[in-house]
Amino acid sequence: MVNDNIRFDSIIQKLRDNGHKITPQRMIIVEILAKSKGHPSVEDIHARIKKDFPTMSLATVYRNIVLIKSLGELLELGFPDGSNRYDGNRPYPHPHVICIKCKKIVDPDLDSLDELQKEIALETKFKILNHRLDFFGICSNCVAEKV
Ligand code: ZN
Ligand code: MN
Asked: Looking at the whole model, is its pTM more than 0.85?
């Protein structure tokens, strides 16, 4: 797990460096993203913020997500059903484990992926720029529920 405070500071700094104002609204979005262990959707983030900022619209949250993503500080996980989830804690490509029942998304701690990437580059003679690796399954909570 990447340190939440380091991620928070680095996103805020990137925004400042690019001339963006740091409003309280923006700060709370960044805070949620920096701690985004659960890979929230825009709707999840909006729901969490609504208590403190009742006037903040979903569109405002979305605009901030697009901005932070454009600065390279946010990893977007798109799915065929149109639901996007976000990881501001690890903004670089990494594998995910996804529960098909409750849609929980977890970051496994792996070292083997660097080796795999080198092997793929060597084998195909591609310069690898990005990757997307998802493992789908049923989480321990959902297995226990036997839904
Ligand atoms: Zn589950
Ligand atoms: Mn992740």
From this structure: yes
